[in-house]
Amino acid sequence: MNAVPVKLGVNIDHVATLRQARGTRYPDPVAAAQACVAAGAHSITVHLREDRRHIQDADVFALKAALDVPLNLEMGCVPEIVEIALQVCPQEVCLVPERREELTTEGGLDVAGRSTQVCATVDRLLAAGISVSLFVEPDPLQLEHCAQSGADFVELHTGHFCNAEGAAAAPLLQQLVDGAEQAHAAGLRVNAGHGIHLGNVARILQIPHLDTLNIGHSIVSRAVLVGMETAVTEMLTALAAGPGTDP
Ligand code: PXP
């Protein structure tokens, strides 16, 4: 069962993508984040990638200073970025896998395979008072290692389900449901994200124990047409409507 409504974290990376495309000062990610918050977003997410393709270091510091909702910093488990996170001290960090050539985060973090490194980073972040989430596939072994790591949250990778068509989708949704049950039973809080849009969010809400959905590309894309506040309001309305089978 989900607490109703599930919270919305808006990922504003692609506001910065638009800015970086031309090397301008606009559009300003802080202004975009403030519009999201004005519309009711519960948190703001940015991914500081090693290649700095969209969000820049200065954006992260500016967002932390400007926002009165939690800032969730997505980042690879790499020393340079961990040091920046410890300086910014966002309310939340979500550790993700990162490959330079990928278009977006492709798979979940291999917490089982990189357990020593991940656990050391989780420890440092927790010691700094930062809440930690691990972005993983809904895989029983990965979730077991997440629980052992001491992280507060898992963020279940919804991308495979969101990209699936027809009959392929149902088993992928079931894996997310089972993953959420396992994580919750192990004492982890459960977020989810990747590839969520207005056409699949009702099925995503069938996943139990959800705290927050982190949604970026579809909201920023929609905002280009209807404005950020309307795009966020539409998604909040969908979250308030709860689970269903989608249009
Ligand atoms: N959660 C994580 C961990 C991600 O890496 C991303 C993509 O940056 C998102 C959520 C948001 O995904 P999307 O942009 O597809 O909504």
Radius of gyration: 17 Å
Count of separate DSSP helical elements:
11
The small molecules bound here are: pyridoxine-5'-phosphate
Q: Helix amount, in percent? A: 40-55%
Q: Uncertain segments of ≥5 residues (pLDDT<50)?
A: none
End-to-end Cα distance, whole Å, is 22 Å
Number of strands: 8
- How large is the share of residues in beta strands? 15-25%
How confident overall, as mean pLDDT?
Answer: 95
Shape: globular
The computed structural class is alpha/beta
Give a quick account of the main beta sheet: strands, pairing sense, barrel closure.
Answer: 8 strands, parallel, barrel
Strand order of the largest sheet: 1-2-3-4-5-6-7-8
The H-and-E topology, N to C, reads as EHHEHEHEHEHEHHEHEHH
Structure, described:
This protein has 247 residues and is an alpha/beta fold. Helices cover 46% and strands 17% of the residues. The chain has an 8-stranded parallel beta barrel with strand order 1-2-3-4-5-6-7-8, surrounded by 8 helices. The protein starts with 6 loop residues before the first strand and ends in a 6-residue tail after the last helix. It has helices spanning 13-22, 29-39, 57-66, 79-88, 115-127, 140-149, 159-163, 169-185, 201-204, 217-226, 228-241; strands at 7-11, 43-47, 71-76, 92-96, 131-136, 153-157, 189-193, 210-215. The model has no long low-confidence stretch (mean pLDDT 95). Pyridoxine-5'-phosphate (PXP) binds at residues 11, 13, 47, 74, 94, 96, 104-105, 135, 155, 193-196, 214-218.
